Amino acid sequence: MVRLIDENGLRIDGRRPDQLRPIKMEAGVLEKSDGSAYIEVGGTRIYAAVFGPREVHPKHLELPDRAVLNCRYHMASFSVDERKPLGMTRREIELSKVLREALETVVFLEEFPRMMIDVFVEVVQADGGTRTAGITAASLALADAGIPMADMVAATAVGKVDGVIVLDINEAEDKYGQADMPVAMAPRLGSIVLLQLNGMMTTEEIEKGLDMAGNAIKHIQQLQIEALRRRYHIEAGGEEV
Amino acid sequence: MIYFKEAELVVPGQLLSDNGRRSGPGTYTMNGKVYAAQAGIAKAVEGVVRVIPVSGRYRPERGDKVLGIVSDIKPNVVEVDLGGDIKAVLRMSERESPPLKLTLGDVIQAEVKSAGLRGIFLDLEGLQKVKAGILVNVNPAKVPRLIGRKGSMIQMLKRETGCDFWVGRNGLVVVSGRSPASEFAAIAAINLIEREAHKQGLTERVTQLIKTLLEGG
Q1: Judgement on whether residues B47 and B73 belong to the same structural domain of the protein
Q2: Residue B1 lies in a domain
């Protein structure tokens, strides 16, 4: 059995239970997409690209009253220790759906009838928390693409490790810990847009975890906003349009 | 009460005003308050709060002057490619002879008559064929900057380079001048405007660039 929390209460990577891994974000990193983002959360590295709103293909998926949001979560073959076979696994198909449902809650799809918005999330290096980092990056890429949204979505995971509730669990804690609970929120709307739980937690533990995640998500959203500001480096007093 | 600064980048979900009746394009209202829906620069014009997006594809609106390439000709309609996966339609249903002879590949300038679920229709009135020039693609979000306030930027470009410009709201621009050198100077200026649309002192830098290009060449 691996010991995940040491006698000082620190985790295997030296973090306190309520501490996030170092996060780096950048918007507008890919030239050929309408909007894009890159995120690093600890060892996790993800690119997200957004195309559209554009024509729906295949045509029969078209909706007369709103846009179709198409999400693809994919892990590169070299993103994990043992080569991941090419193509979409069952897990990737499920995560694509989960990601889409989280983003659908904030995007104003009804503004683009008969159109499609494509979101591609490509995991380049996986170290736990790829779905949450993927949502954070996808939301930043959507904002970079100029897609109207009610709020920017940010996400992180909480977990239970050696009986302690910890924030932003990494791969080792995910594998050997007792529970993993990814949370995505639209903080300014005060809504939870994704909540999954793998393992067992008591009601109190879940409440504590949600509290921790909520605070962390507010911080992550600040990082998203800073990344957008850096991307458009708008100077105060710039000339008017 | 207004909660944003002039020329500040606002992000989706940001609170802009607590008066929900003053909600313009690029914003949405919730519980009587106005929030930004897009990343862009917020402005309050005549009491209405709006967000001018800094990115995004072209969204056709009634009255927009656009440039397009004729992509298909059918018995009663002419299809026009507006770029960015958008196709518009010119209806030639009137009994009179068509105002212009159009063939595939022609570049035309027209006004958007209507844009909605049925598609995008262009107005036959004011339809013009662009006969010659170089076609350039500009990010549609940067077109207002290229035109400038009341057309100041584009007039300056005309004056400095001596070229003619057709600017479509959809991001297609045709430059036509007497010499290749002046056309290339104009295109370099357009690229500079597109790249540095949000920086200060752009007009001076553009004039400077055109001067060095025209005198150097």
Answers
A1: no
A2: no
Pairwise CB contact (< 8 Å): B198 & A143: no
B57/A233 touch (CB, cutoff 8 Å), yes or no = no
| Domain assignment of residue B112, given as a range | 65-130
Mark which residues 157-186 of B lie under 8 Å from A by CB.
Answer: none
Residues of A in contact with B38 (CB under 8 A): 143, 146-149
Q: State whether residue B142 sits within 8 Å of chain A by CB.
A: no
In this prediction the pTM is 0.90
Average pLDDT over residues B183-204: 87
> Are the Cβ atoms of B13 and A114 closer than 8 angstroms?
no
Look up residue A203 and give its amino acid: T
Pick among 3.40.1160.10, 3.90.79.10, 3.20.20.80, 3.30.230.70: CATH of A23-235: 3.30.230.70
Question: Do B9 and A229 count as a contact with CB atoms less than 8 A apart?
Answer: yes
Q: Compute the Cα dihedral for B62, B67, B71, B76 and give only its sign.
A: positive
Tens digits of per-residue pLDDT, B79-99?
Answer: 999 987 889 999 886 656 666
